Amino acid sequence: MSSTSGQTSAQIVGVSFGIISKDEIKKLSVLNVETWKTFDELSHPREGGLCDSAFGPAKRDEMCATCGLSEFDCCGHYGHINLSLPVFNPFLIKQLFQVLKMCCFECHHLLFSPTDLEIKIAQMEALSRGLDIILEDLQAFGSSLTTDNIGLDAVSIRLYVRQKLKEKIDEEYNKRFTKSVKNGLNVKNIVEKQQMVYKEFLTGKLLKPNKKCLQCAALKNSLTVLNNALIIMNESKSKASKKIIGADQIEDMAVMDMTAVRVGYLITGLGAHKLIDAKPLDQLIPVDEFLPVMYDKHTDDMMKHHFPVRNLRALSVYPLLIYPTHYVGDNHYISDTEDSHKTELNANSLHPKHTEL
Ligand SMILES: [Zn+2]
Ligand SMILES: [Zn+2]
């Protein structure tokens, strides 16, 4: 048989990995997980939960609801969870943050000079063609190009520089590589250099972004990452004003203080751990007092004294994410905290007996 003769029609020369898109995830998924409850009261897997039989058999005698195979033959299936708010991929947030720091938020161009940018793109192109030894030559050649006499806009300068660099790469390629050498390239060395160039580009070592956009003259915004989950932009006009990148429905945000009226809280996992670490159940105070204590804006030193580590970070957003149905003074307004009476501290109230609770 021809298939046993060892002949192959193609040879694998490389493998590359990427991130699958939202649409691809949905195509691979056999189930949209909609309930956080995995098991029912009798400890059976709930339909639509994380142990749904669509993902594969959970027990020995069961069959997979997707492929119909047993525990031994089914290799398991993917599902997905629809998130109610957009979130950054935690594996990519650092790289995304670096790229955003190089962008103009007004016209969305990169904050580099057209020539510098084209030189770096040409160096990447040279590497992909195996020309790892001409990176410095390209830098020198590109920098020596005179673009003054072009006298046109940044796009025309880029096209001119790009063309000249391309000609240089083609010339070097034809000069250095015969057919036999092309097959014997030091791929490992080239891949290492490519990774180094990408890394240095992302960390800003290769090129420093300009403080002012060359296209539209807008000033560069300063960005910060919060808890590896949010990217926040300080608006250039006022330092107090901030914006969450990616959350278009939020127009404005500010660091919380004690005077702000709070109607609801959204808390990150890290924030929840900070609150638990403060052991609030050992010394109960109302939540509207506890949170300002923990983000260190409470004005009552006695309360603060009981919680020595106050490292919570709190931000307020506008427009509000949730709205109260009734405000103080409205008919049918009920509050768990506003109407409560302060209990004086004494020996008995500090150590109540269970019968008194
Ligand atoms: Zn299966
Ligand atoms: Zn711009």
From TrEMBL:
UniProt cross-references to Pfam families, sorted A to Z = RNA_pol_Rpb1_1 (PF04997)
Q: EC number(s) per UniProt?
A: 2.7.7.6
Keyword vocabulary terms for this entry? DNA-directed RNA polymerase, Nucleotidyltransferase, Transcription, Transferase
Tell me which residues make up the RNA polymerase Rpb1 domain.
11-193
Matching InterPro entries = DNA-dir_RpoC_beta_prime (IPR045867), RNA_pol_Rpb1_1 (IPR007080), RNA_pol_Rpb1_clamp_domain (IPR044893)
Q: Name one GO cellular component term.
A: RNA polymerase I complex
Keyword check for Transcription, yes or no.
yes
State the family named in the UniProt similarity comment for this chain: Belongs to the RNA polymerase beta' chain family.
State the protein's name.
DNA-directed RNA polymerase
Q: Which organism is it from?
A: Medioppia subpectinata
